[in-house]
Amino acid sequence: xxxxxxxxxxxxxxxxxxxxxxxxxxxxxxxxxxxxxxxxxxxxxxxxxxxxxxxxxxxxxxxxxxxxxxxxxxxxxxxxxxxxxxxxxxxxxxxxxxxxxxxxxxxxxxxxxxxxxxxxxxxxxxxxxxxxxxxxxxxxxxxxxxxxxxxxxxxxxxxxxxxxxxxxxxxxxxxxxxxxxxxxxxxxxxxxxxxxxxxxxxxxxxxxxxxxxxxxxxxxxxxxxxxxxxxxxxxxxxxxxxxxxxxxxxxxxxxxxxxxxxxxxxxxxxxxxxxxxxxxxxxxxxxxxxxxxxxxxxxxxxxxxxxxxxxxxxxxxxxxxxxxxxxxxxxxxxxxxxxxxxxxxxxxxxxxxxxxxxxxxxxxxxxxxxxxxxxxxxxxxxxxxxxxxxxxxxxxxxxxxxxxxxxxxxxxxxxxxxxxxxxxxxxxxxxxxxxxxxxxxxxxxxxxxxxxxxxxxxxxxxxxxxxxxxxxxxxxxxxxxxxxxxxxxxxxxxxxxxxxxxxxxxxxxxxxxxxxx
Length: 517
Prior knowledge:
The chain has 517 residues and is α+β, with helices and mostly antiparallel strands. It has helices spanning 3-19, 27-51, 81-92, 108-117, 125-129, 143-153, 159-164, 166-187, 198-215, 228-245, 247-256, 263-276, 286-298, 305-336, 338-349, 362-365, 369-381, 415-418, 462-479, 486-491; strands at residues 95-99, 102-105, 121-122, 194-197, 389-392, 397-399, 403-405, 410-413, 480-484, 495-498, 500-503, 509-514. Strand 10 (495-498) and strand 11 (500-503) form a beta hairpin. Helix 1 (3-19) runs antiparallel to helix 2 (27-51), helix 8 (166-187) runs parallel beside helix 19 and helix 9 packs antiparallel against helix 14 (305-336). The longest helix is centred in the middle third of the chain and has 32 residues, at 305-336. It comes from Phycomyces blakesleeanus.
């Protein structure tokens, strides 16, 4: 029996009533009957989709057969869905149904097929994240548009350019070291250790680096504890997670114009104005690429400065949140594993710091086996893409030759779950950087490892991010003794996904003291 036959059976009572209406029936009665007909049609469609449709055999929570599970009405409830999906995959398997027309996958063959081989289009969630009519390279769904934009921005992420901004990374990292020393002195009391919120400082550092390297303007957030931009960024991420689960709210916010009235947007607007109007010098960076591109498109028309500013906001968010959170998780994992921290410190101590400086050159760090292993393992175990990578099937497909996916199905690539599967990674929940070293007994499952996505939509800033994380971690390990705070270690277990993986508190404090020469 096909779909049409089932719908006709379910709707038969309604059409029978319509055909037997008394002649004196009023217009109001017709209206009521029409409403009943629509309700029955909607219900029958839901029932068919849940129990007879192409996805009906895929396991998952019962409620998700009928409704896409929202995060919750209150902001305090957001961030839990991505963690809940880990439990769902553990319970139901590598392919689960999480909505009437939505599935989540953690099978490595399927992930490669979706992200690389078939290179499916980004899903509708990215439309929610866009500013209306002003999509960016990160949230654009059209593959041609993305390809053209990626080609345009590639010079700003080339090896040559990343090498050229090394002084900026080192300078910003040295300023952070000065801030750490100041915090130690201010909080150490009678002991030698002081308390430092490294999670917050890493976020500030990432903001300052992307601001200076990409837009020619250091935000100076590291030295300003009351700077509005870090808090603005946190609210943006929390709010974005909420909007993704409640798209109708996004429309209301967009119509009100509130999305652009934030300290970050205001600050970026001023930076763009200064460059466009010649108050700051031209330099070859992300901002200049945006301006030149707009000029090429507009011809003699005035530049849409607000459009450029909105695009810069997306670059700032993507370029700071992911990097800082990964660095924070690396320090958390090292605090949980003293032996791992000692091994990393031994490797870093074998390198000589430049005379009178607190940071290394990237040539000294980029090939350190254990430092890179620590980063790889952090990116595996604490994968920032907590919410998954959403794609949509633009035609009928069969995943791994076993799961039929009809056109229009939303496919969530659950990278975090794939990174934690026991059949891919021995002791999957253990932090073991050794698994990335050549002599380890089990080779890493690289085909199940996608920390920067894969395929045409992989992260353009991968090398940029890795360099920044190496600089930061090496500076901390080289210059400070670290003492974990038990309460903070316990609180760090409470993780959530505000689009990116983070600690619920948005803070992680440790005790530090300068190491003796």
